[in-house]
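From the pipeline queue, job 12 of 40. The input is one protein chain; the requested action is below.

Action: predict structure.
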Amino acid sequence: MRILTFVACLGQTWGQSKPACYDYEPVEVKLTGTIISRTFPGPPNYESIREGDEPETYWLLRMPKAVCVNSREPGDIYEAKTNIHRIQLVFSSEAAYKTYGRLLGKRVRATGTLYARFTGHHKTPVLLTVTSLARAK
């Protein structure tokens, strides 16, 4: 009876795949997904564009499968995150939007480092400082 229970539990585990787990900066990561553009309410209240908040448009990487990010240090803002489907992309300059504009709506491979949200301009719990973007195969 115990063997059957053990085998039944193994069967449940084998059929499930764990999400990929990544580390925060300074570790470089590579993520694959589709770049989407989304507009969010910005200053002064970060609540409603209709009620006067400035619109802020950002690019997000929408991933087909959820990922997770490991905790860096207890009590730090770099806490573990799970079930991440979208990550805000952060570029070193505004020119990157023009450089990578042809990739909007496309499946890409994004390389960079992850960090945790800490301001109202951060729209996802985890963000990626992009070092490169390329069309995914």
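Job complete. The chain has a mean pLDDT of 88.
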